[in-house]
TrEMBL record:
Residues 19-341 form the Aminotransferase class I/classII large domain. Keywords: Aminotransferase, Pyridoxal phosphate, Transferase. Belongs to the class-II pyridoxal-phosphate-dependent aminotransferase family. Histidinol-phosphate aminotransferase subfamily. It comes from Chryseobacterium jejuense. Its EC number is 2.6.1.9. The gene is hisC_2. This is Histidinol-phosphate aminotransferase. InterPro entries: Aminotransferase_I/II_large, HistidinolP_aminotransfase, PyrdxlP-dep_Trfase, PyrdxlP-dep_Trfase_major, PyrdxlP-dep_Trfase_small. It is an enzyme of class 2 (transferase).
Length: 342
């Protein structure tokens, strides 16, 4: 199709390509080192190459200052989320989640009969950590905190989050999703897994690393908690393809690429916020590569305008305030997005 052809054969006619601002992917990625790792090793794909997983796990352990048995690989963080869902669903129970938050993965739990306790955000669209904690009851097996939160882009206050993690009963699994953490200046919470055996941190290469299509993510947690998840994953650590693992190993080492993407995203996000604010559109301050904003003051047909201009956005999350989300693309893409709105 048109997209694949133009990427493969570098025949880019930017004005004709759709602008994909739907799923918070990195418009600049993958890192050149990751691309080189993929193309240099393409011939390795006739073998399982079991030894590559331990190499990547060693790198990830080093990066997160944990031991190798504290890491579990998945085909995207979605596979890890799915393992947690299966683990939780074994008993009659419930789970606590902010609303709205990232909940595509929770359909496994919903379909397996785990009750969902939705907790409204604060007025400024942050996760209400004290209400989340107060919602835990005797049947709660899981509390999920997406930090920064998708779709709102808001960041939890670190001290408050750590307090919640420490006081959550040990029989409740705490799942902290750090998919977008590299777009902030916040430090990962992985060091806490040494003292909190019921904490799972889930991470992905799909966002700032620009490897969404390679499907690679991982969990960081206490080794015995991870053993429980390993027992639910038939192909432990090897559901990820060899090329994706090699790309991840290369990408971890490319600090320059990650930093460049961080800076580009910050600048383009500022541009987008300024332009939307000039259109009287209310935006929530974001620590991520996406923006949450309200269409209440937008008098035109937002989705019609996106469609006419071949721009892929996403849905309305909260009907009352007509809140929606847009991914921060390149400066050129966001200029075209703003022009489409105008
Ligand atoms: N977690 C969050 C918060 C996300 O926004 C996404 C994808 O958009 C995922 C997890 C899943 O990503 P992947 O399975 O590509 O790692």
């Amino acid at each position: 199709n048109a997209i694949t052809n133009s990427i493969l054969f570098q025949e880019q006619d930017n004005n004709n390509l759709p602008i994909i601002l739907r799923s918070n992917e990195n418009p600049y990625g993958p890192s050149p080192l990751a691309l080189k790792a993929i193309s240099n090793n393409i011939k390795l794909t006739n073998r399982y190459n079991w030894d590559i997983a331990p190499e990547l796990i060693a790198e990830l352990a080093k990066k997160n200052s944990v031991e190798e048995n504290n890491i579990l690989l998945g085909a995207g963080s979605t596979e890890i989320l799915d393992l947690v869902a299966k683990y939780i669903a074994a008993e009659k129970s419930n789970y606590v989640i902010a609303d709205p938050s990232y909940d595509y993965w929770t359909k496994t739990m919903d379909n397996l009969g785990v009750h969902k306790i939705k907790v409204a955000l604060t007025a400024d669209k942050k996760i209400d950590l004290s209400k989340m904690f107060d919602s835990i009851n005797q049947d709660t097996k899981l509390i999920y905190i997406c930090n920064p939160n998708n779709p709102t882009g808001t960041i939890c206050e670190r001290d408050q989050l750590v307090t919640l993690i420490k006081k959550t009963p040990r029989n409740v699994t705490i799942l902290v999703d750090e998919a977008y953490l590299e777009y902030t200046k916040e430090k990962t919470l992985t060091e806490l897994i040494k003292s909190i055996p019921n904490l799972i941190i889930v991470k992905t290469f799909s966002k700032i690393h620009g490897l969404a299509g390679a499907r690679i993510g991982y969990a960081v947690a206490d080794s015995s908690l991870l053993d429980t998840l390993r027992n639910l994953q038939s192909n432990t650590n090897n559901s990820v393809s060899v090329l994706s693992k090699l790309a991840a190993i290369a990408s971890i080492k490319d600090d320059k690429f990650i930093n460049d993407c961080y800076v580009l995203n910050e600048n383009v996000r500022k541009f987008t916020i300024t332009e939307l604010t000039n259109l009287n559109i209310k935006c929530i301050p974001s620590g991520t590569n996406f923006l949450y904003f309200s269409l209440l003051n937008y008098p035109k047909d937002y989705f019609g305008n996106l469609e006419k201009n071949k721009i892929q956005g996403t849905r309305i999350y909260e009907e009352d305030g007509k809140w929606t989300r847009i991914t921060i693309g390149t400066l050129d893409e966001m200029r075209r997005f703003v022009a489409a709105l105008k």
